[in-house]
Specification:
With about 280 residues, the protein is an alpha+beta fold. Helices cover about 25% and strands about 35% of the residues. It has 3 helices and 20 strands. A hairpin with a 4-residue loop joins strand 7 and strand 8. Helix 1 runs antiparallel to helix 3. The protein is elongated, with a radius of gyration of 26 Å. It starts with a helix and ends with a helix.
């Protein structure tokens, strides 16, 4: 296969990854607190020289030794757009929206029998009944929301419940309103280091590999600071018009590279006819 066809095939494979990314953004255009992703491409030119001094290493080898050259374009990085999304009022007591960028709610997630902490911008919370007569505050997926003393739970039998701008859970009983818990909200100091785990959740990366401490990425906020808007939700920051234009451009690039392979095949066919 010619180098031109190899280059086009490599680029098409990476363009498919970008199409998948655009499709994921468009599918989450109505997801509360979702942050869009963008693909950044870079030129690909690699050379590798294999020097095998031991003849035993060459046993079973199907390709000749020497320089390998890779060319085309590859997906260099996937960047997350952390801009604040529009805030929409819902008039629902357990809906809260973070009013500043890089702020996150903490939730508890159990995977494969292991309990871990995840982070999200989705402030659509619900009450889930427990066996001991209490109600647990959870996300829409049923993950417990973390407060000052771990997962937030309150005794059933209340008259009203709401969350104020400080993240305090105000519960009304017998005409009196008391603060029974408070959301633990954190700030991402290096938000681009957070890893997406699906379901609109993030987690800390491998800290040992990066050489960071958890405090260098995530820090708790001042509980006396008003950082929430009650009875409202932050919308996705996906720009549909931009995603559509990126989709059309990426599809056209895919077609161009596909045409390159077709032309390369036709040229090889002409060369073979001339030789014959």
């Amino acid at each position: 296969m010619s180098q031109m066809m190899i280059q086009a095939a490599v680029t098409m494979n990476q363009l498919q990854n970008k199409l998948d990314l655009i499709g994921n953004n468009m599918a989450n255009s109505q997801t509360t607190g979702y942050k869009s992703r963008q693909a950044e491409f870079s030129s690909l030119l690699t050379q590798q020289v294999n020097n095998l001094t031991d003849p035993a290493n060459a046993q079973g080898r199907l390709t000749p030794e020497g320089i390998r050259v890779g060319s085309g374009a590859r997906l260099g990085s996937t960047n997350m757009n952390l801009n604040q999304g529009a805030i929409r009022e819902t008039n629902r007591d357990l809906d809260v929206a973070l009013t500043s960028e890089n702020l996150l709610f903490q939730v508890e997630v159990t995977e494969n029998g292991q309990v871990g902490t995840r982070y999200t911008r989705d402030g659509s919370f619900y009450l889930s009944p427990m066996e001991n007569g209490q109600m647990m505050l959870t996300t829409s997926d049923g993950n417990p929301v973390i407060g000052n003393n771990g997962p937030i739970s309150i005794q059933d039998g209340f008259d009203s419940i709401e969350i104020n701008e400080y993240g305090q859970l105000l519960v009304g009983r017998n005409g009196q309103q008391t603060i029974e818990d408070q959301l633990t909200i954190v700030e991402a100091i290096r938000p681009r280091l957070l890893e997406s785990t699906g379901q609109n959740l993030f987690q800390l990366p491998n800290l040992e590999a990066l050489g960071f401490n958890a405090e260098e990425i995530i820090q708790e906020t001042n509980p006396q600071t008003a950082i929430l808007q009650s009875k409202a939700l932050e919308q996705s920051n996906v720009d549909i018009s931009k995603e559509m234009s990126d989709l059309l451009m990426t599809q056209r690039l895919y077609q161009f590279n596909s045409r390159t392979i077709t032309m390369g095949d036709q040229m090889m066919g002409l060369v073979n006819q001339i030789r014959s």
